[in-house]
Design brief:
Elements: H1 34-37, H2 39-49, H3 70-73, H4 84-97, E1 101-107, E2 113-118, E3 124-127, E4 130-136, E5 142-146, E6 150-153, E7 156-158, E8 161-166, H5 168-171, H6 173-192, E9 198-203, H7 207-220, E10 230-235, E11 246-251, H8 261-265
Parallel strand pairs: 9-10
Antiparallel strand pairs: 1-2, 1-6, 3-4, 4-5, 7-8, 9-11
Helix pairs in contact: 2-4
């Protein structure tokens, strides 16, 4: 769903258009994102939230017309790629699943807000003690935004790190990981015609390190043709910023005949 018309600054020389950065924010990894893991539970709540139309309130408590609140008027067509429904869908999905929601506020030279775009997750960087956001554009370039240009919203503050946030999606990740284990178990069962004997959890700070360690283990540890194989899961340290990498091997069941759900949950 795109916007029906573009946003124009009539006093400027040409059109003022807000864009939505999309490169790198989609997930195609089989390990899934927070949103994909809790999608079934998340979908009804997001559908309800995006039906609420925000409006301004005056000093006497009465609602203000949109021409009095240009910041809210811009939400009807936040950027050239999205209308309110699609923008709200992405905004609330991110807010409910990630540690923080970052929205780039587009302003013209007079400081008037004319659009918004949701930044991809994990784009906050720090150089010389200064925080900023770096985004890879669809055109191939890189855009940097200061914290003054980005509005940050968190579902809740993390009491162990008040500069970070926590969301329902993060809080339910332990159960979502169990679902991932079950899903990959079934995938291996149907594709390989065998029940795997192990789950190898590779803790890695990046996906590249995870894939490198997985290739190393596969080269050195070959199982039987159709049984005794292992499932690989990537777990990344997100909250504490740790760069420690490690490998953990869990036995599904010694008999290799059925999946021991109790052992995985423990």
């Amino acid at each position: 769903m795109g916007i029906l018309t573009k946003l124009f600054d009539r006093k400027a020389a040409g059109p003022t258009v807000a864009t939505q950065e999309t490169t790198g924010q989609l997930f195609h990894d089989p390990l899934c994102s927070n949103a994909e893991n809790v999608f079934a539970q998340l979908r009804p709540l997001v559908d309800e939230l995006k039906m609420v139309e925000p409006f301004g309130v005056g000093r006497n408590g009465a609602s203000l017309p949109l021409n009095r609140t240009p910041e809210l008027l811009a939400l009807q067509s936040p950027n050239e790629d999205m209308g309110w429904a699609e923008f709200a869908d992405l905004m609330f999905s991110t807010w409910l699943t990630e540690k923080e929601l970052n929205i780039h506020v587009w302003k013209n030279q007079r400081g008037k807000v004319y659009g918004y775009s949701v930044l991809p997750v994990n784009r906050r960087k720090t150089t010389g003690g200064v925080d900023y956001f770096e985004v890879s554009l669809a055109s191939g370039g890189v855009a940097r935004y200061s914290t003054d240009e980005v509005m940050t919203l968190r579902f809740s503050r993390n009491p162990r790190n008040i500069d970070s946030g926590i969301s329902p999606g993060i809080a339910s990740m332990v159960w979502a990981q169990i679902d991932d284990v079950l899903a990959q178990y079934q995938l291996a069962h149907f594709e390989n015609g065998a029940v795997p004997a192990y789950i190898t959890i590779i803790r890695a700070s990046t996906q590249e390190k995870y894939l490198e360690k997985r290739r190393e283990l596969q080269r050195n540890l070959h199982g039987a043709k159709n049984k005794g194989k292992t499932l690989y899961l990537w777990r990344q340290f997100l909250d504490d910023g740790s760069e420690k990498d490690e490998v953990e091997v869990k036995t599904i069941q010694g008999s290799n005949a059925s999946l021991a759900i109790k052992d995985i949950m423990s």
